[in-house]
Q: What sequence folds into this?
């Protein structure tokens, strides 16, 4: 199974400041046949299901604010919130879909400083 | 509007059984892989199982193999999870989730249902 790790476990950011979350996979999730990274990012607020933010590691889902961006390739990925807003306080998860046995990272909690 | 609505959760004793259902609407159900994903209280997300459009392929996380069975009824636009030999560690909110792209196994999940809580306790 592909193991996903995230860092940090939590971070506190001032309103308007940048938040950076890292995700690492135990093996590459880059498919050579199409040169796509099989990596997604979700946001989850308390009492709600996860909400899709990013897929193919860097493609923003329709309706997601452009302050959210994804980058990286192979085994190392980053989710960046360029200017933290009040509504961004949440837990963020990465997920690999390279393998049928889908796996998620443990999550990163983002809060206000 | 695409919608997934789970039901069937509740309190069950260790060793007991429970059947979860997910009612789908707003899309062509028989065109998509479907999954169950769970979240233990205060913990992260864990993919549990998925099933192909026609039910011919099914995959499970190791921890539920031999105890859980995923199935679907395309005529009723419904997904199911039969859970047997339940353990305390199966306590979680169980989400129904659709593959984002039709006829494609390797997918991110979108949309998700609101979830149904399963509590395994004596």
A:
């Amino acid at each position: 199974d592909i193991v996903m790790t995230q860092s940090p476990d939590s971070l506190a950011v001032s309103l308007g400041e940048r938040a950076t979350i890292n995700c690492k996979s135990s093996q590459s999730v880059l498919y050579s046949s199409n040169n796509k990274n099989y990596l997604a990012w979700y946001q989850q607020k308390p009492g709600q299901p996860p909400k899709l933010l990013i897929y193919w590691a860097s493609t923003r889902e329709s309706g997601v604010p452009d302050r959210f961006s994804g980058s990286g390739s192979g085994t190392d990925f980053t989710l960046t919130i360029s200017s933290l807003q009040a509504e961004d306080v949440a837990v963020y998860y990465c997920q690999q879909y390279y393998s049928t046995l889908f796996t998620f990272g443990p999550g990163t909690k983002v809060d206000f400083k | 509007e695409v919608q997934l609505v789970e039901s069937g959760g509740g309190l069950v004793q260790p060793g007991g059984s429970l059947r979860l259902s997910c009612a789908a609407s707003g899309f062509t159900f028989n065109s998509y892989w479907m999954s169950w994903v769970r979240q233990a209280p205060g913990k992260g997300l864990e993919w549990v199982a998925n099933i192909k459009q026609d039910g011919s392929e099914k995959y499970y996380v190791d921890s539920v193999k031999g105890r859980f069975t995923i199935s679907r009824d395309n005529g009723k636009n419904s997904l199911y999870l039969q859970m047997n030999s339940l353990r305390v560690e199966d306590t979680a909110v169980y989400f129904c989730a659709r593959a984002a792209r039709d006829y494609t196994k390797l997918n991110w999940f979108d949309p998700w249902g609101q979830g149904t809580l399963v509590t395994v306790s004596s």
